[in-house]
């Protein structure tokens, strides 16, 4: 029943949990690329997004880590920073952060009650109901524009770029981390098509940084930027970087940009994080050079070193030694394989994996399976999961050509039991890795760290 709050305003949602359930209840509307509904929703709210500065982050992999680097440095430099990311690892509020803290539950409830009648009104129009991600995006924009007023918002795309809901904003700088084969059912099944969707975040006159390497992807990005009179800063051309050293505590890179050189240390592991760090540094250099952001070298160095992103090649426990990594596509698997070899010497590699049903699992396995001694196949606790038995069929198909002859395969659909198996089989000199969809990583991380309030989800 709808109730009135102390100001006499209708409040159909009474608690934080009701608000989250309502937003997640819009999931059946699916992923519907297009900006029509978010434009209408923002118009009804007075276009709050037009009062904010954004750094727009797109790409196939590395978006979250790049957001973490940018947020950490800007906070270190004294700026108030909003950070909008997805999916979340622990709690729904994770995706709406201000100065590194989640949105308060009571604020999320208040904003949900503002959106609730608008969403229901729109559901009766030809536009149809806004989706879960559209409502989440609208909530983020309201939060930043009307509740906490950040100096800048680090703004991650949900899916693609061109038709992604987040593309309603005009940023001060954009970054496309990389281009890979993911979400091909929505974005297209070639590098060119996917690059075209990602390049859709490029706005007229707004500089764009990219770590894309494939010639066909670079060509699409450069042509889009030229058409829109936007300057491209391409890794390997306008800025370069090389790795200096690495150990179990972190790694260092030497960054050379158009304006200066820096030696930077980061705690996040894996060669791919050097790429993300360099892209973030180039964005920060543009903010400093052209947009009057005060970013002292000391703040940049401290911010980069302190940046952290959960579930991305993250060692969560030492005994047994278990690493979590949300690699779920071929490029992610390639980075994971390189990082395992690079960072953690081991006797046996025990890999637990669980996937969604819409990914390129054969190509994923090509990269990681050659390293594995024991493979534990399980299922994420999520509606679009791939059955472990179906995943086994894919493994058996590729196994003869690439796997170790002595590879042991265990099928345990219940992820908690699979985790117990992984822990019991990972001895002192071994390495246990949990990889696949972040829906699995979220549950495993909560279990290993004994977090009781984990919600996890998209």
Automatic annotation (TrEMBL):
EC number annotated for this UniProt entry: 6.3.2.17
Class of the enzyme per the UniProt entry, highest EC level: ligase
InterPro entries on file: Folylpolyglutamate_synth, Folylpolyglutamate_synth_CS, Mur-like_cat_sf, Mur_ligase_C, Mur_ligase_C_dom_sf, Mur_ligase_cen
Residue ranges occupied by any Mur ligase C-terminal domain in the UniProt entry: 311-437
Keyword Magnesium in annotation: yes
Mur ligase central domain boundaries: 57-283
Catalytic activity field: (6S)-5,6,7,8-tetrahydrofolyl-(gamma-L-Glu)(n) + L-glutamate + ATP = (6S)-5,6,7,8-tetrahydrofolyl-(gamma-L-Glu)(n+1) + ADP + phosphate + H(+)
Taxonomic superkingdom: Bacteria
SUPFAM superfamilies, per the entry: MurD-like peptide ligases, catalytic domain, MurD-like peptide ligases, peptide-binding domain
Record GO terms (molecular function): dihydrofolate synthase activity; tetrahydrofolylpolyglutamate synthase activity
Entry keyword set: ATP-binding, Ligase, Magnesium, Metal-binding, Nucleotide-binding
Gene3D superfamilies: Mur ligase, C-terminal domain, Mur-like, catalytic domain
PANTHER family: DIHYDROFOLATE SYNTHETASE-RELATED, FOLYLPOLYGLUTAMATE SYNTHASE-RELATED
Entry's family note: Belongs to the folylpolyglutamate synthase family.
NCBIfam families for this protein: folC (TIGR01499)
Protein name: tetrahydrofolate synthase
